[in-house]
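[audit] Reproducing an earlier prediction to check determinism. Same input, same settings, fresh worker. If the C-alpha cells differ from the archived copy the diff job will pick it up downstream; this log only records the rerun itself.
[audit] input (221 residues):
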Amino acid sequence: MDALPTTLLQFADLVQEHPTWELPVLLATLSTSAPTLHRQCRRFLGISARQWLLSYRMRSWRIALQEQGDVLESALQHFGALSSAYRHAAHALGMSPASLRRGGAGAWLAYGIAPCELGNLVVAQSEKGVSWVCVQGDAERFTAELCETYPQAHLVRMDERFVGWIAALLGERPQLALARALPEPMLLAALQQHLLAFVLRQPIPWRSAAAPSIREAHAHV
C-alpha cells in the first residue's frame, strides 16, 4: 500500500466543506458508490464511511460546545436534531454535554502519551468513551492544552501500559500510517473510532478515590 486512494482523500475534503451533508449526498457528489467507498474505508482505515463521518461530526460538536456553550444550537448545526447528537455523546465526548460545557465537571479522565508512526498520540479517556485525541510533535504542550480544556475534571496520567496498548492497537492496523495524508481533523476522527473501540474493551485500572486532582496531575506532567 503506497498511498491512500483518491476517493478517500476527496471524501475527507468534502466532509470538511459540508459537514452536515448526509452520506448519500456526499456519495452522489463524489460520483462513487457506497460499496466502493465502504470497501476502501475498511481496507485503509479499518472503519466504515458512516463511522468515519459520525466521528468527525462528534469531534466538531465537541469543539462547538466548548466554544459556544449552547447544547441545542450546536447539536442542530452538526446533526439536525438533539436526539441524534445525544445518541452518541457519551462515547464520543467521554462525558455528558453539560459536563463538557462546565470544563469536565464531575468527569474522571485518564490521559496518556504514546509515540507512534503518526507522531506523539495524546489520548484522554473516561469510563464512557474517548474525550480527547491529538497527534503532535510537542506532546507536553498539548497535555497542557488538555488541562486547560478540562479544568474541572479529575485528570490522571496513565502508566507505561498505555504505550503498550497503543502499540498493540496500531500494530493491528499498520495501514493507519497512510492516514497521515488525510486532513488532520479527518485523521483524528478515524483514530478516535479505533481508540473508542479499544478503550471500551479495556478495564479502567486507574480510577480510585485517591486519584489526584487536575492541578496535582498537571504538576507532574
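[audit] rerun output stored. Observation attached for the diff report: The chain has one domain: 6-219.
[audit] end
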